[in-house]
Amino acid sequence: xxxxxxxxxxxxxxxxxxxxxxxxxxxxxxxxxxxxxxxxxxxxxxxxxxxxxxxxxxxxxxxxxxxxxxxxxxxxxxxxxxxxxxxxxxxxxxxxxxxxxxxxxxxxxxxxxxxxxxxxxxxxxxxxxxxxxxxxxxxxxxxxxxxxxxxxxxxxxxxxxxxxxxxxxxxxxxxxxxxxxxxxxxxxxxxxxxxxxxxxxxxxxxxxxxxxxxxxxxxxxxxxxxxxxxxxxxxxxxxxxxxxxxxxxxxxxxxxxxxxxxxxxxxxxxxxxxxxxxxxxxxxxxxxxxxxxxxxxxxxxxxxxxxxxxxxxxxxxxxxxxxxxxxxxxxxxxxxxxxxxxxxxxxxxxxxxxxxxxxxxxx
Amino acid sequence: xxxxxxxxxxxxxxxxxxxxxxxxxxxxxxxxxxxxxxxxxxxxxxxxxxxxxxxxxxxxxxxxxxxxxxxxxxxxxxxxxxxxxxxxxxxxxxxxxxxxxxxxxxxxxxxxxxxxxxxxxxxxxxxxxxxxxxxxxxxxxxxxxxxxxxxxxxxxxxxxxxxxxxxxxxxxxxxxxxxxxxxxxxxxxxxxxxxxxxxxxxxxxxxxxxxxxxxxxxxxxxxxxxxxxxxxxxxxxxxxxxxxxxxxxxxxxxxxxxxxxxxxxxxxxxxxxxxxxxxxxxxxxxxxxxxxxxxxxxxxxxxxxxxxxxxxxxxxxxxxxxxxxxxxxxxxxxxxxxxxxxxxxxxxxxxxxxxxxxxxxxx
Lengths: 363, 363
What we know:
2 copies of one chain form a homodimer.
Chain A: E1 35-37, H1 41-45, E2 49-54, H2 64-77, E3 83-86, H3 90-102, E4 106-111, H4 116-123, E5 128-132, H5 139-156, E6 159-160, H6 169-172, H7 176-186, E7 191-195, H8 200-214, E8 223-229, H9 234-240, H10 266-275, E9 279-283, H11 285-299, H12 305-319, E10 328-333, H13 341-353, E11 357-358
Parallel strand pairs in A: 2-10, 3-4, 3-6, 4-5, 7-8, 7-10, 8-9
Antiparallel strand pairs in A: 1-2
Helix pairs in contact in A: 2-3, 3-4, 7-8, 11-12
Pfam family, one (chains A, B): PALP
Protein name (chains A, B): Tryptophan synthase beta chain-like PALP domain-containing protein
Organism (chains A, B): Paenibacillus agaridevorans
């Protein structure tokens, strides 16, 4: 029996993160997520070293918890009296939990038809929720709401928490800890595939590996794989077409969490793809749902659809010959299955409808 | 930046667990759960050292994952072709996930009116589910079903997985890792409060601390606090009344997961209470629901009701003067909030009904 473990969340890496005094550090045990070797899907794809990084096992079920831990600690340190933002669900549940832990009120704007289960996961932590007509559909309304977030934050000495480097660069630094943990668990891999909506997760992981290279702890970046839905592929298309900005077009994707048609972190995403011999994958929602099912059925990993698009994108890259089958590859599984209960019901409705009912004597 | 972490789940403690060859060890990253210091509730109760052990952050959201990792590894090692059992939900979701990871089919009997969300979490991993009339209500049917589980397991070379020391003592050894992790994170505490249904979780934690004492790594057991619902308090009443067996009476508790009127691990529970100057708490379901809400609102910890009964039981012990307020105390939070979506809806229905709707111009 060994005695070694201490649960310090992202603060294990405090020396490499924005400075927060120990008494201001908030943690709910985020990070230190498992890296699990594939037992079935990798072999079928002919991949010899496939791993899943289970960000779905963070305290509120998504990688957002790393950002929230940093954001609320910064808010506490600078004496902010509340925090404020917008959410489609996961960031809101995460910030609400960490705000509760910090004893700081959280005000959050959501779209009128937010998924009920996602709303509930925000409300259990007693956040102050406000619905806004047209938010999530009309880009002009989105801009207006964001201006309100900024204005109210400045006017009231509140912390604005938006999970993008473009808006909250210090809090987003915490996303790098994903890369640092992978490097520690496995060494720097040959390729990392990441779900991409606004680009913050992808950018943070790239920055983390970039830092490792800067410190001469590795000689080469992993190839960064950006995985987007065919219904919302503005970043990958913008990069592939050399536009220097996201391609245009509203989102028609059904995958909650990555429906971001005006991705704020485009510049870092393009830099990462350019400098790492990156790979862009654009996959149909049906493929993402298929790999979500396969992860649950064959690997025992139950994630939300957005968490499976990294695997769907990798499969496409392998089948089109853009990835070496002997490479050491990590797929980021960004969020937990229970985040999307509508999809859960669809996944199992056929099986649920055909469960036999027996008398105990008939078994 | 430090590089230290490897995700080996319960196998970090392999030297102290039943022998499983490395190539037969199954893990999804269970264990290594956070131990979080209370930031608000402890101070209000006048407790100087209150901690929460978040078993809710295991891969499928409950401590059962530690047992499943061991059970499926043992099944694989002994060449079993399937596993079989019964469940009210959490064990089933856990075993189903680990069976999927191991590539071993899982057959499971459930009651006719199993909570839909709990059923879905079993089905996503493609378990073979069978409903049985009267299971969960009629003890005679429960006995019959259990005989079927044993008979089928023996006849077919399947592994019977029932999460109790009385039925699966080797797999249950893995529960001790909770105690070993706490000892590592904090040292051996003065008291540990545990949700008690069948008694397996409580027994395993006691055994883990007992082992630490046997190895002379600690001089004293923590006081073991057994927390039961007033609607299903057969173990605590049996101990308090000196019956030498559980008290009689069907369960009327509404708290899913601890409604066990014929607890199989009574002998170990009584031994633990006797030898550790133990404490029994019997709390009304309303108290448990109240502390579930308070944990979410004030500590950022969202657990299912059964996971909050350890805190409810501690509060009772403190208020009745049975626990020293300066003691180092750990409450085990056994399962995640998303396990009980009916309760989730109840928790937030008032808040959800009063969310204001604004035009963006009105904000």
